[in-house]
Design a protein that fits this description.
The complex is a heterodimer of chains A (947) and B (115).
Chain A: H1 3-13, H2 15-20, H3 25-51, E1 56-63, E2 68-74, H4 76-99, H5 106-125, H6 129-147, H7 154-185, H8 190-193, H9 197-202, H10 206-220, H11 229-232, H12 238-244, H13 249-259, H14 261-264, H15 268-290, H16 295-316, H17 319-350, H18 361-364, H19 366-380, H20 386-401, H21 403-428, H22 445-463, H23 465-481, H24 497-514, H25 516-525, H26 531-553, H27 558-579, H28 594-612, H29 617-637, H30 641-662, H31 675-700, H32 710-721, H33 726-734, H34 736-760, H35 764-770, H36 785-808, H37 816-834, H38 836-842, H39 847-867, E3 877-881, E4 887-891, H40 892-921, H41 935-946
Antiparallel strand pairs in A: 1-2, 3-4
Helix pairs in contact in A: 1-3, 1-5, 3-4, 3-5, 4-5, 4-12, 4-17, 4-22, 4-23, 5-6, 6-7, 7-10, 10-13, 12-17, 13-16, 15-16, 15-21, 16-17, 16-20, 16-21, 17-19, 17-20, 17-22, 17-23, 19-21, 19-22, 20-21, 20-22, 20-24, 21-24, 22-23, 27-31, 28-29, 29-30, 30-37, 30-40, 32-33, 33-34, 34-39, 34-40, ...
Chain B: H1 2-20, H2 25-45, H3 66-97
The chains are: A mainly alpha (947), B mainly alpha (115).
């Protein structure tokens, strides 16, 4: 099966559990199981080739410009991790089916689990480090969902947040490290980077890259001093803990260190950073684990300790140690997953995981006891269990490194023995108690089968290591080290220093366990930094700082933001002006005629007037519309007929819109700002206006410094676009893609308006509207006869004009935008004349549909040209003669323009019709006939009379 | 002529900015409209002022620059969409809060979030 498909399967499958949960919990779990099993089978089909020593690479280019490609690689290391992720995933799915209660949303759980699984498989199969980073971040996100699965528990939410913060920050550091690494190696493909070991180690950027990458690996794999998040993640449901902390999430950091081992290891920096962190983590985790009373906390810190052990082995930098690390990764995954599941069973049955409340479960839960004991003895490193073999190798490697390493490693091993045995002794052995929170007994087969399979593996690997996993470990170790490794795995190596250290560890560990209860009070009372409170304090202060900064800058005074914005823009402009040289322009000016002078005076009067009368809102609306009209006249004067038509029609629609809104807004603006403030605003406005005017003057009085790109459009307008109106051809052809975006924005804007009105009509605004009392005199004759008749006659005429403008648009002023506005105005007139309800009743097509049809037509037009083998939105045209009409120009661009037309009609009508709905809510009354009398007018008159 | 156009653009900008800095929603909407006129004319005139030469093939000897016109045409339509959206926002906030003041009195008051 293709590697990309293996990585994609869990993601695709993640869609299923949410659907399948409707068919029951068994179906849901079975589907999840099948998806994972399919991916695992696909993986194992590739296994024979990998075991022969081949490296499988597949993929395709994604963004080759930045070196980001979807390339996958499968070698021994990837095979080991992918097998663990999918194999243990299968066991976890079975276990989770029986562990989760009826109240837990199982569909969500399995969706999150598959997302996480896919991200993990993606990490271990990626050949491109940028792709790997994408999957790496996905594991952080999906594990957040899993750890916080029990949303009702504060510990769950806090633990999930902490895990996300720590691993997310590490991931950010790692992005930097990976980019540096890719720059040094000259490639982002792992199989190429792995060839560049010497160049990377001798680069001056080696140390920064190493530190950044290790930050990512250490946070993910919970290495000191980032180990604190892992125990808090134990608030997750136990299947999650068993999955994340045995085979997957925390192993991702180890995977990365193993993956890059050939190029990063072997330097003193690597040795001290990695081996040092590993050694400290191993001992620290083991010591803390011994004094934890919560079974899952004990296992959490033991996980920290074992991750430290593997990190130590990778840090030592020898082939032997790396092989031991690989072997221990396998062993730890088997016994730790079994242990977590055992702890989950105990919790599930006895309703507590507190060791102090347990003991004597051996007789009540014999099956669980057997499984737990096998796994825990393996964790302790007792012979015949697989943990023993790799722990021996670790001690051997530490012994070879130096005396101090040997001593500290032995201390770690002592505590490891003590906490492992404590798990057995204090939970299962001892007398049966009669005060368990719930009387425990062995769970059903479904719950213990998964840990049982793992326990069998523990034993089989422990007794026959060479026959079972020997050759696999060789293949993986060869992939890690880049050399051919042949390791002789055996139970008995004779009396070696490691065996003696092991013996000491077991003996002292048992003694230590005997004193554990006595030592515990001292441990509990010993002062030490509490990671969670430090973390919380940091988060708290960061949040407070962000709050203060935000409130200082973003204090809710929008007028202040706008003022600052204007001042800054003007200041930049002034800075640019005085920073450069300026010579007056030499372009000849056009003469001023009497009409232009009238336009100019009107604009000046309107500009000053709108400021002067802006408190009287109706009057200011009239004044500002003068500006709009003169602007459209200006467009006519300076050779822009299309703009003039657009501006004119938009002006009409805008004024109607503002009038409708003003009906429900105060009619006057109170005088609020002080004279000083008004003077200040006036100065800002005048300076900014002066600047813009001066800039416009500077532009207008000189010719273009570069030739205009419009020459291309003019030259190709007819040849390429088949139209004489260059502006329209630019809109529907040359820049058709822009236009498509613009009509989409227009449509979205109208839909947002519709949605906002929906919100207004349900909230407190709705109550205000229902108690609305008109604050102005209302015309009793609200649908005058003259207007109704006139608009009725005008409608077909307007529609014909609209069609005419649309059809001629390609060659003469017109087109979809203008035609759309004309038709919209014609329809609006019906609403105005005959009332909203009356017109809406006759309006059979929803405006949303009109918008959607318009955008779709535009998109389909573009796609058709793609299907025909041209670029998106390439147009073609023919001239046809249809009797009795004149020669008609049929261009594919006309279809696109039709899309524009429909979108504009739909958007304008939806916006205004939405506003009218507010009026209906305010009691405007529904008229049944096109002409009627406003019933409210009588009411207002009666109220006046009563006063 | 160019000087008059420049002065007109400047005065529309000044009026627009002054209104934009007012404290109630409706003057701000008017200010944005004024500013839109000014900006559209400004972009349009970046093709320089040419009289009697529309961008239609065969209509005249010379031809004005069609590109700024195409840009401004869509800008006019989009600015209608923007004005409509802002007006509805203004109306909604007035109907919900009972005031059409632009500035928020007490910023930073957010609902308490649990841990």
């Amino acid at each position: 099966m293709s590697l990309a498909l293996i990585a994609a399967l869990p993601f695709l499958g993640a869609l299923l559990p949410g659907l399948m949960i409707r068919a029951g919990r068994n179906t849901c779990a079975s589907v999840t199981f099948s998806v994972t099993a399919l991916a695992l089978i696909g993986l194992l089909l590739n296994a024979p080739a990998v075991m022969r020593g081949e490296v499988i690479t597949q993929g395709w280019d994604w963004l080759p410009v930045i070196g980001l490609n979807v390339t996958f690689m499968l070698d021994g290391l990837g095979l080991l991790f992918a097998t663990m992720i999918l194999g243990i995933g299968l066991l976890i799915i079975v276990y989770a089916r029986f562990y989760l209660s009826k109240d837990d949303p199982m569909g969500n759980f399995f969706t999150y689990l598959l997302l996480f699984q896919g991200a993990m498989v993606g990490i271990v199969l990626s050949d491109n480090i940028l792709l790997l980073l994408v999957f790496w971040e996905l594991t952080s996100l999906s594990s957040f969902l899993l750890i916080g699965f029990w949303k009702h528990l504060p510990e769950g939410r806090q633990g999930a947040r902490m895990a996300l913060a720590v691993t997310g920050l590490g991931g950010l550091a790692m992005i930097g490290g990976m980019l540096i690494l890719g720059q040094i190696a000259g490639s982002y493909n792992i199989h190429e980077i792995l060839q560049q070991g010497d160049a990377i180690r001798s680069s001056e950027y080696y140390l920064p890259a190493l530190i950044l990458i290790l930050l990512g690996a250490f946070t993910k794999s919970a290495q000191f001093p980032f180990h604190f998040w892992l125990p808090h993640a134990m608030a997750a449901p136990t299947p999650v803990s068993a999955y994340l902390h045995s085979a997957t999430m925390v192993k991702a950091g180890l995977f990365l260190m193993a993956r890059l081992w050939p190029v990063l290891s072997g330097t003193p920096e690597w040795f001290w950073l990695v081996a040092g962190a590993g050694l400290i983590t191993m001992v620290l985790g083991a010591v803390i684990a011994l004094f934890k009373d919560d079974l899952k906390a004990l296992l959490a810190f033991s996980t920290v300790s074992h991750l430290g052990l593997i990190t130590l082995l990778l840090g030592l930098g020898t082939e032997y140690a790396a092989t031991a690390a690989v072997f221990h990764i396998i062993n730890h995954a088997t016994f730790k997953a079994a242990l977590f599941m055992t702890a989950g069973i105990v919790d599930h049955e006895a309703h507590t995981r507190n060791i102090r409340l347990l003991g004597g479960l051996r007789k009540l839960m014999p099956v669980t006891f057997t499984i737990g004991t096998i796994a825990a003895l393996s964790m302790a490193g007792i012979p015949f269990f697989n943990g023993f073999l790799s722990k021996e190798m670790m001690l051997e490697a530490a012994h070879d490194t130096g005396t101090w390493f040997a001593v500290i490693a032995t201390i770690g091993a002592i505590f490891s023995v003590a906490y492992s045995l404590r798990f057995i002794f204090h939970t299962f052995l001892g007398p049966v108690r009669n005060d368990y929170p719930h009387h425990p007994h062995d769970p059903g087969f479904g719950m213990w089968v998964s840990p049982a399979i793992l326990a069998v593996l523990v034993l089989v690997i422990g007794i026959f290591p060479a026959q079972t996993v020997g050759s696999f470990v060789d293949v993986v170790a060869s992939a890690v080290t880049g050399e051919t490794v042949h390791m002789h795995l055996a139970l008995w190596h004779g009396v070696t220093p490691a065996l003696i250290m092991s013996g000491i560890a077991v003996a002292v560990g048992i003694v230590l366990l005997a004193f554990q209860r006595g030592l515990a009070p001292f441990w509990d009372n010993a002062p030490r930094p509490e990671a969670k409170s430090i973390f919380d304090a940091i988060v708290e202060s960061a949040a407070r700082g962000a709050d203060e900064l935000t409130l200082a800058l973003h204090d809710g005074a929008i007028s202040r933001y706008l003022g600052i914005f204007t001042v800054v823009v003007v200041a930049y402009g002034a800075w640019a002006f005085w920073g450069g040289s300026f010579t007056p322009g030499t372009r000849a000016m056009l003469p001023v005629g009497p009409v232009e002078l009238i336009f100019f005076v009107l604009i000046m009067v309107a500009s000053i007037g709108v400021v002067a009368v802006h408190r009287m809102r109706f009057v200011s609306l009239i004044v500002i519309s003068i500006c709009g009209l003169v602007v459209s006249m200006t467009f006519v004067r300076f050779s822009a007929p299309d703009l003039a038509l657009t501006q004119l029609t938009v002006e009409v629609v805008t004024v109607i819109l503002l009038l409708l809104a003003l009906n429900y807004l105060p009619k006057e603006t109170p005088r609020e700002s002080s004279p000083a403030r008004r003077i200040r605003d006036g100065v800002i406005a005048l300076v900014a206006g002066g600047g813009v005017g001066a800039l416009a003057y500077a532009i207008l009085t000189r010719d273009m410094s570069l030739p205009t790109i419009a020459d291309y459009h003019v030259a190709n307008s007819y040849i390429g676009g088949g139209g004489n109106n260059v502006v329209n051809v630019i809109l529907v052809d040359f820049r058709g893609f822009d236009t498509m975006g613009e009509i989409t924005v227009l449509g979205i804007g109208a839909l947002v308006i519709y949605a906002l009105v929906e919100v207004i009509l349900v909230g407190p605004a709705s109550r205000r509207l229902m108690n609305w009392v008109p604050d102005m005199a209302q015309a009793r004759d609200r649908h005058p006869l003259m207007m109704v008749v006139a608009t009725r006659v005008a409608l077909p005429i307007s529609l014909v004009v609209g069609i005419y403008i649309f059809l001629r648009g390609h060659n003469e002023p017109g087109g979809g935008f203008i035609a759309g506005l004309v038709v919209a105005i014609a329809l609006l007139m019906q609403y105005m004349a005959s009332g909203f309800a009356w017109t809406q009743e006759r309006q059979k097509v929803a405006y949303h549909g009109v918008i959607a049809t318009g955008v779709l037509i535009a998109v389909v037009t573009g796609l058709v040209s793609m299907v025909l083998g041209w670029n998106f939105l390439t147009s073609s045209s023919v001239y046809v003669e249809i009797w009795p009409l004149d020669k008609i120009h049929l261009a594919s661009a006309a279809a696109f323009d039709l899309g524009v037309f429909l979108t504009v009609v739909g958007a304008v009508m939806l916006a205004l019709a939405s506003l009218s709905r507010i009026g209906v809510r305010a009691g405007e009354g529904v008229n049944l006939t096109p002409m009627d009398i406003d019933p409210r007018a009588n009411l207002v008159a009666k109220i006046e009379e009563a006063r | 002529m160019e000087a008059l156009v420049a002065i007109a653009i400047g005065s529309m900008t000044a009026a627009g900015i002054y209104l934009m800095l007012r404290l109630r929603t409706f003057p701000v909407v008017l200010g944005l409209s004024m500013l839109t006129y000014a900006v559209n004319v400004f972009i349009f005139t970046s093709g320089r002022l040419v009289a009697g030469a529309p961008a239609i093939l065969g209509a005249a000897e010379v031809m004005t620059d069609p590109l700024p016109q195409a840009l401004v045409l869509t800008a006019i339509v989009i600015s209608f969409g923007m004005t409509a959206l802002v007006v509805i926002l203004a109306l909604g906030s007035y109907l919900n809060a009972g005031t059409d003041a632009i500035d928020i009195e007490k910023p930073g008051e957010q609902p308490e979030t649990g841990n």
